[in-house]
């Protein structure tokens, strides 16, 4: 599927790196959750996220020699030659425009990057109706895709992790096989499942992995055809105890007192790891009260459905009237993280309606919030991400959404975890 | 399938020429190919380039881009090897089968068997009826450590009480007769300057030729000088008051006299120069690469006794100079991109810019570690943040282990280019270690359980 030519600019940076940037692409997106990245031999590839069409990546190449193994496939020969020339500091040009010719591997690498993105930023939310993706299911498909894209890697970079992903998620192989066996033959999903299973088997064999789950996989694949089990809804295969939300409110925090103010804080996904907080925009709520002479702030944060019950020290950060941050430790109570803290009365005095800002973060993880001016843009970016995953889930729910060619080369094709989530979402 | 039309008479990427020739060989190569039919990356790296193309013999094929004549030559070389490659693929399948039957899971079969399979194919052609036996023998032979160079052998060797007593005496004597420690700050102050000069010739795009400072440092014994300065904790070597002279090579003020030791665990290894004889050799023996190049265990122990009393615990002066270069590089590492450190060289720009790229990847993967000390302190992530604020310690620790491994195998670093390959590789490894630890820490946090032991599990003896 040789794509039409796309113009790229190849340029050498001061530190010896060579950059490849598609011409006409908007300026690089700096928000962490709107970039899908892939670390390949000698370079980092980046795609903008709310767009899951094939698209050429930008590349930041720190080892042009190593990158030559894949440059010609991802961008075509012309770009490979331009990078080679630009890397020569003595005689090479500092920048050239050249036409790229994307191939199937271009799409494959974009899909792999998007999968890694989804594993970290998928905005699962109960109030928004966005189901979670089963991590082991996504992890296994990423292992398959990594093997599918093996030309990108040479064993010495961050994302060459097929074996590691298979070992980490091998407990999901059995349900995956049962799902495949239960699917009617010739459905799109059956072919997708089989292809992923074959890639995992091949990757494991090539890397010398072994174990009961992998032997079972091998046996199943050589027993012809997926028919061999009862039809099985993926929902019943990847069930987790205690997943469903008990929407009962937690302990009544705010008993008594006089209400001073209440509102919603900022839910900045970048300030805590995935799987802790529901991704909804208004997941963070606060209430300020007066109890006699005392002043108190109470914070309630909707928990992610898989949030850990113990061990994590999530905190809310409270700013009153633009002052220094006060931290409120949060504890998990059913489907909420809750906490409260006394504030010095003078903080709330003197202003009829105090300006209170509340954020939620994991200490030690938090890279510090973005600049305040950035808030609206970041909110819009989160909304764009939600729109993207809603669109993908709708596609995933429709079996006849068949696409030409291999699903592994098409970023917009649903991941198995999306298919499973889309047909499971009656819980939501 | 890439379909690229290119006018004839132009140079082509070597990787493309290999890919085309490979696909032209037809079926039978699946065990050596990726899912799309291209050769596996390791097939190219371990078979096609070193055993068929052999750029060392044919320098005209060593380039990333080939003129039409060279491309045709490479294409011919691959095509002429078709039968041998098919046989290699069949041997590989047999060896994997034998490995599975024997229940062996350690190591990557491509790394372990590719070259052997090519040799078997060269010697025997395609596997014959009795090839199962041969395959089994080869797999067992590869799994057996050559000449008993194992941690167990080391343990047995050092279990003998009389021998331990003698070794302890040797260490005491060796330590007492070390070259004198030096606290001459004036001469050590020049070390960093020389190192900076060498580092400025590293990592810059283009060949690092004309690097007299490296050779001069080796000839002048600057590595030994630094080792002796370490024994006296001579200050001011790195030109920064906040850095200890030893850069974490010892956990004490000065390195202690090495002990014999009787056990080790990768999880609790002390700083390099605080390690026992046993711990130093344990690390060498349990890393699988190059084991067949090692001396026998008694020889290893005998030489380590003297080595551990030498400056920096290394015999070879070029390796000691690499420690000085590494120290100077480590003193300017800036993984957080604060830009605050002084005296950056070309090598620093390369390493730090890669490190900041890594930080950007980690942010995009939602794997951040806050660089700022947390007001409430504590926690697994805080320990990782601490490492980011003192990156030199992890760097020097890894560098020393790598150089020590070379010293044991008698593999000096003859020139600046080879030294830079090691220095740069260590920087990469330190980054990868960091990422693996962040991943493991976040997994622990989000499951509320103990960290899963990954591929790089703890090993003990």
Can you characterise this structure?
The complex is a heterodimer of chains A (428) and B (461). Chain A folds into 3 domains: 6-102, no CATH class; 135-240 and 379-427, no CATH class; 267-368, Immunoglobulin-like (Sandwich). Chain A is globular and about 75 Å long. With 428 residues, chain A is an alpha+beta fold. Chain A is built from 12 helices and 14 strands. Chain B has 461 residues and is an all-alpha fold. Chain B has 2 domains: 1-144, no CATH class; 178-257 and 309-447, no CATH class. Chain B has 18 helices and 2 strands. In chain B, strands 1-2 form a two-stranded antiparallel sheet. In chain B, helix 1 packs parallel to helix 3 and helix 17 crosses helix 18 (416-447). Chain B is globular and about 65 Å long. The model of chain B is unreliable at 1-8 and 450-456 (pLDDT under 50). The interface between A and B is large, with 83 and 75 residues.
The number of helical elements of chain B comes to: 18
Largest interface: A-B, 83 and 75 residues
Strands ordered across the widest β-sheet of chain A = 3-4-5-2-1-6
The low-confidence parts of chain A are: 241-251
Radius of gyration of chain A: 25 Å
What is the residue-mean pLDDT of chain A, rounded to a whole number? Answer: 86
Kindly state the percentage of residues in helix of chain A. 25-40%
| Mean pLDDT across residues of chain B | 87
Main beta-sheet annotation of chain B: 2 strands, antiparallel
